[in-house]
Design brief:
The complex is a heterodimer of chains A (about 375) and B (about 260). Chain A is built from 14 helices and no strands. With about 375 residues, chain A is an all-alpha fold. The longest helix of chain A has 23 residues, at about 5-25. Chain B contains three helices and 15 strands. Chain B is globular, with a radius of gyration of 24 Å. Classes of the chains: A mainly alpha (about 375), B alpha+beta (about 260). Chain A: Its cofactor is heme. Chain A: Pfam families: CCP_MauG. Chain A: InterPro entries: Cyt_c-like_dom, Cyt_c-like_dom_sf, Cytochrome_c_Peroxidase/MauG, Di-haem_cyt_c_peroxidsae, MauG/Cytc_peroxidase.
Chain lengths: ~375, ~260
């Protein structure tokens, strides 16, 4: 036998063997010619961040992320072809938007504000009320919600299948040109997991404290300090935990906006009296870019937010977070921050803006 | 010659593939004859009552209260045999969160088989891990128990309300590992009289602890909410730590397997 022929023969046998392995694990009914496997993509946790959570059911690949990026900006996933995920999650606004209440197709208003997607891969509860616990599960909610994108995912899949562009992209990412709902959700999740924001002035401060101005240093001190009566503190860190400056896992807070609730928040999901009026604490990374603030966008400025926490917390609101009504700063239990202290905290919050994140060309709408 | 060498190489390769194809998906753990498991269960109670968040209780001192949150670390678990020999669980950090039922029970794995007569654990996190920076698992900073920067972890976090408290709110964030306000405490609540934990390859005993919230406010130090309703480390937290060391945890019963 000629050597080259022998090589071919061995190679075929090797492929047969590998297919046998694959077949043993998961029968592959797809009759399409096998493509090369997609290229695995490994994310790196920035210094000080928790480990990248493993997603064994949806490992990141370059092809999957590229597809997810295209889908994220794909308006055909909405009922009338006018809205994509990117409509309410805009890169220039750290993947939130500038509306008090999110706007869906036909200009309809959601009852809540868009949340930033920065560092969403570390979140275990998604949405203001934790209605979803994984990105693969979450994306279906806004896609199908009548006041958001208002189209069944099945219809979206049918539209994508009829295009000439998407079937080959799905084939590259998931091995089959037959588009499935699961693979749409997986690709969207993959793209969103790459949205890591860790390039702010605050991040530089951690290795080089001299980058902060005196106001920023003082604002950070207030942010992370529990008041004792002799030390002033603004208690922010209880709910906005570094390094993500987001709420802790599986934890929801009533921050004292209202005496009576028009939106039950977490309580609407669990039905538990103790969860009524509680919401997820959103990330403060890029907070200067994501006004208006709160789940219903009631505050237009960070100054109004600070005024709320300092002076206007509804202390008798059911399930009020105890850290907001028990401050040794003032006999009333309120934080009562001075004008200077508020200014310093806002100066610190502005250091959480990450211009590399909002300008990263890998996150923008792909050029067709 | 060349053909023969390649043939044997091919044979080896195919054999390798065949072996792989039979083992690649075989994820059954092979039971190790000299290793077993031990389950630890933590039931939070208020005296003789079960703890329900939001429900009204009265402390031993007569103060009314409700809880909205109760979390604590159980770490550095050690098992001791009658002859004094010890096994320490590696990477032994567990966070019990009352509102997440699944966290109230966990399993010690790969425990050497044998008869154990004592379980010791730490309430809190050892000083080394307090200053190791961002970590994973139970020590993940986003678990609602990290103070960040120099102060490390909160070991026990209790929040709620009390009409006796100055502003109606209870905030007990107990932690701190530096002298003189170190709140790390190790305890060895005794097994029921005559009980031995028989860990076997085919048998996993379960130890059922009761953690009594009332004992946080009584014991060596009487805590009245009118006097103390807000502590995050420091001397007041030490008082609470001495209470949790003195009798918050007891073994209620043991399931043999």
């Amino acid at each position: 036998m000629h050597l080259a022929a022998l090589h071919r023969y061995y190679r075929q046998l090797l492929w047969a063997g590998l297919l046998l392995i694959a077949a043993n694990c998961k029968p592959d009914k797809d009759a399409e010619e096998p493509l090369g496997a997609p290229t695995p993509l490994e994310l790196t946790a920035p210094r000080g961040f928790p480990r990248i959570p493993a997603t064994p059911d949806n490992p990141l690949t370059e092809e999957g992320v590229a597809l997810g990026r295209a889908l994220f900006y794909e308006k055909q996933l909405s009922g009338n072809g006018t809205v994509s995920c990117g409509s309410c999650h805009q890169q220039s606004k750290a993947f939130a938007d500038d509306q008090a209440l999110a706007v869906g197709i036909g200009g309809q208003r959601n009852r809540r504000s868009s949340m930033s997607l920065a560092n969403v891969l570390w979140e275990k509860d998604l949405m203001w009320d934790g209605a979803a616990s994984g990105l693969e599960q979450q994306a279906r909610i806004p896609i199908e919600n009548p006041v958001e994108m208002h189209q069944s995912l099945a219809d979206g899949v049918r539209k994508l299948q009829q295009t000439s562009t998407y079937p080959p992209l799905f084939r590259k990412a998931f091995g089959s040109a037959t588009i499935t709902e699961d693979n749409v959700l997986k690709a969207l999740a993959q793209f969103q997991r790459t949205l890591i924001s860790a390039g702010s002035k605050y991040d530089r401060f951690l290795t080089n404290p001299s980058v902060f101005s005196p106001d920023e240093v003082q604002g950070f001190a207030l942010f992370r300090t529990h008041a004792t009566g002799t030390t002033r503190g603004a208690e922010c860190f209880h709910c906005h935990v570094p390094p993500t400056f987001s709420g802790p896992y599986n934890t929801f807070f009533n921050n004292g906006l209202d005496q009576a609730f028009t939106d039950l928040g977490r309580g609407g999901v669990t039905g538990l009296p103790i969860d009524m009026g509680r919401f997820k604490a959103p990330t403060l990374r890029n907070i200067a870019l994501t006004a208006p603030y709160m789940h219903d966008g009631r505050f237009n400025t960070l100054e109004q937010v600070l005024d709320h926490y300092s002076d206007h917390v509804q202390l008798n609101s059911p399930n009020i977070d105890p850290n907001l009504g028990n401050s040794p700063n003032h006999p009333s239990g309120r934080m009562i921050l001075s004008t200077t202290e508020k200014r310093q905290i806002i100066a610190f919050l502005k250091t959480l803006t990450d211009s590399t994140f909002v300008n990263n060309p890998q996150f923008s709408p792909p050029t067709p | 010659m060349l053909f023969r060498t390649l043939s044997s190489a091919l044979l080896a390769l195919l054999l390798g593939i065949a072996t792989l194809s039979f083992t690649a998906c075989d994820d059954d753990d092979k039971a190790q004859p000299n290793k077993g498991e031990l389950d630890l269960e933590f039931e939070n109670v208020v005296g003789t009552q079960a703890l329900t968040l939001g429900q009204a209780y009265t402390s031993t001192n007569g103060d009314a209260f409700t809880l909205s949150k109760l979390n604590y670390y159980i770490s550095n678990i050690k098992l001791t045999k009658a002859d004094g020999s010890e096994w320490a669980e590696p990477e032994s950090y567990h966070l019990v969160k009352h509102d997440q039922t699944s966290t109230r029970t966990f399993t010690l794995q790969e425990v050497p088989t044998g008869d154990y007569t004592k379980i010791t654990f730490t309430i809190g996190v050892d000083s080394t891990r307090n200053v190791s920076g961002a970590q994973t698992g139970a020590l993940d900073p986003l678990n609602d128990m990290f103070w960040t920067w120099n102060s490390g972890y909160i070991f026990l976090k209790l929040e709620g309300t009390s009409p006796q408290a100055a502003n109606g709110q209870l905030v007990f964030h107990i932690g701190g590992f530096k002298s003189p306000n170190n709140t790390i405490r190790s305890v060895s609540p005794p097994l029921p009289q005559g009980t031995v934990l028989k860990v076997r390859a085919e048998k996993a005993p379960a130890v059922h602890y009761k953690a009594d919230v009332l004992k946080l406010f009584t014991g060596p130090n009487v805590i009245r909410f009118a006097e103390l309703s807000n502590t995050m480390g420091g001397p007041s937290s030490v008082k609470v730590a001495n209470n949790y060391a003195a009798g918050m945890f007891r073994i209620d019963h043991v399931h043999a397997d």
